[in-house]
Amino acid sequence: MTEAQEQGIELVWRLSDILAGNASIDSGEAFIAEDVDMHMDRYPFKGISGWKSWLRFIRSRPRVVDLDLVERKVEVEGDRIRLTGRWAGYINGTYQVSDYRGGASYRVEDGKIVEIWTVRKNYPFMFGPIIKYHLGWLVVLVQLFFWSTFYQPRVDWAKRLPVRQAEAPSVAEA
């Protein structure tokens, strides 16, 4: 195994901790490229902000409480690192583990995850069977749009303020 493959495996294990809810979603900024390319079936998406929104959206769905990724396994497939596992969590108060062992592949370059491949069939545990169908996927995308527009926490706005609170002029100086 090459050093690059070993590094890729380490990064994907770190990512799996985020997916499992054991690390913050924002911690992915340290090892996921800002302009990461994502592929969900034939649908392309771009950027870490979209990736973070997708994970926050998944975690906000009321169908599953305490979402976790269990039975995780990471392996090398050519120039990609493959993560497989089963989703688990509480549905209607009962702990359940997905029957389906899902997976995603990742390409690593220069110490960052630069490309992600996943499929819709990884997500029925969180969204129900609706996501298996193209029309259902569009419904989920519409929900994501409205959630990200109106409900998603706006914690990133503090980073965009032109003047930090400590640097703002006092009333006496103004």
Listing every helix as H and every strand as E from the N terminus to the C terminus, the arrangement reads HEEHEEEEEHH
Q: Which band does the percent of strand residues land in? A: 25-35%
How many E-type strands? 7
C-alpha termini separation: 63 Å
Fraction of helical residues: 25-40%
What is the helix tally?
4
Apparent shape? globular
Taking Cα atoms only, what radius of gyration do you get, to the nearest Å?
Answer: 18 Å
Write down the overall mean pLDDT: 85
User: Which class of secondary structure composition applies to the elements?
Assistant: alpha+beta
Note the main sheet: 7 strands, mixed
**Unreliable residue stretches:** 155-174
Structure description:
With 174 residues, the protein is α+β, with helices and mostly antiparallel strands. The chain is built from four helices and seven strands. Strands 1, 2, 3, 4, 5, 6 and 7 form a seven-stranded mixed beta sheet that branches. A hairpin with a 2-residue loop joins β1 and β2 (43-46). The termini are far apart. Residues 155-174 have low confidence and may be disordered.
Sequence-ordered SSE layout with sheet pairings:
Layout: H1 3-19, E1 32-40, E2 43-46, H2 48-60, E3 65-77, E4 80-91, E5 94-97, E6 102-109, E7 112-118, H3 124-127, H4 134-151
Parallel strand pairs: 1-7
Antiparallel strand pairs: 1-2, 3-4, 4-5, 4-6, 6-7
Short description:
This protein is of the alpha+beta class. Helices cover 30% and strands 33% of the residues. It has 4 helices and 7 strands.
Question: What would the keywords be for this entry?
Answer:
disordered C terminus, alpha+beta, 7 strands, seven-stranded mixed sheet, 30% helix, 174 residues
